[in-house]
Amino acid sequence: MKKLSAKILSFTLAAIIAAGGAVMASAETVRGDVNRDGSVNSTDALMVLQKSVELEVENFDEAAADVNGDGLINSGDALAILRISVGLDEPETPEEPEKTPLDYNKQELVEYYNNALKTAYGAEKITIDKKTNVSVHIDKLSVKSLMPLANQLIEQFAKPTAEKKTFNNGVAADGTKAKDFLVPYDLEADGAKEAVITETENGYQVKITLVDEKVDYNKAPKYNTQASLPLPLLDNSMISSYGASITRAEYDYYGTVLTADIDKDGKILTLNHTMPLQLEAEGKYSIFTITGSGGGTYTLDASFTY
Ligand SMILES: [Ca+2]
Ligand SMILES: [Ca+2]
User: What would the pLDDT profile of 108-156 be if each residue is shown by its tens digit?
Assistant: First the structure.
């Protein structure tokens, strides 16, 4: 009976407005344009009635159908649609709820992160406090007597650093650019394996995990280079000065994590990069072929004072 009475109501309503014109509207979601054909008319009202009695309705825009915004789709909305179609009421576009960084997708989060750094580097005045640390160890070395040499090489990279600099419009008194002092802001979304954002007391925390990058020792890892500070390319002349040579070596950057605390105005407050890496190498020293492997973690911490 419910379905039959709805049908009768549909036909009655349709008949009432048959003489009425259709209101043309734009292609975006418009209240009342249920089939999104650009016009609010009796077809839309009929579709609402069909839907309200749980009939299958194809091409049905639910957001457009709840014209009076009470969360239900029923004959009240069908009437409202008919009122619009005969020009008694104006159609309106439902207001989009305001988007916050918490609603961002991966690509938007990467952009948000890049922009936070870019904004900081371009600030009228900013002081960046930077600390780095490397913890690397050799797991295996086929020629044990070369361990001291290997460790000597590692020590060149493995010194903790602490540096603080003030920049005015991105440049320090000694000419250093903020971007060169800290890290670049060029990360592409494809370089992010995952990006998450959480709300904090001051704003948001963005955490981006980079994709794994396994590269030859004399090639820069694409995404780690866009966003962080991968190991410098190994200087062969330094190695040959020890009478050794590299025949094959590979770095594996298997999941660098970039964490930034950003305030509600998009200003970055703190930054942490944690870059775990693994290294495998084969080289020659005198008559020996040496193979070795090792790994460790590089960390960067920075705080920003505006
Ligand atoms: Ca329509
Ligand atoms: Ca409604």
Answer: 999 999 999 999 999 999 999 999 998 888 888 888 887 777 777 777 7
Please classify residue 222 by burial: count the beta carbons closer than 10 Å to its beta carbon, then call 0-12 exposed, 13-18 middle and 19+ buried.
middle
What's the pLDDT at 13? 53
- The amino acid at 111: E
Cβ-contact 33, 61 below 8 angstroms? yes
What ligand has the least distance to the C-alpha of 52? 2
Could you give the domains of the chain?
2-85 (1.10.1330.10), 101-305 (no CATH)
Identify residue 9 by its one-letter amino acid code.
L
Would the pTM of this model clear 0.85, i.e. be above it? no
Residues 179-190: tens digit of each pLDDT:
999 999 999 999
pLDDT at 221 over 50: yes
Which ligand lies nearest to the CA atom of residue 67 in the structure? 2
Question: Under a CB-based contact definition with an 8 Å cutoff, are residues 57 and 50 in contact?
Answer: yes
How far is ligand 1, taken at its centre, from the CA of residue 84, in Å? 11
Ion ligand 1, residues whose Cβ is below 5 A away: 33, 35, 37, 39, 44
Q: Which residues pair with 101 in a beta bridge?
A: none
Residue 3 Cα to ligand 1 middle (Å): 22
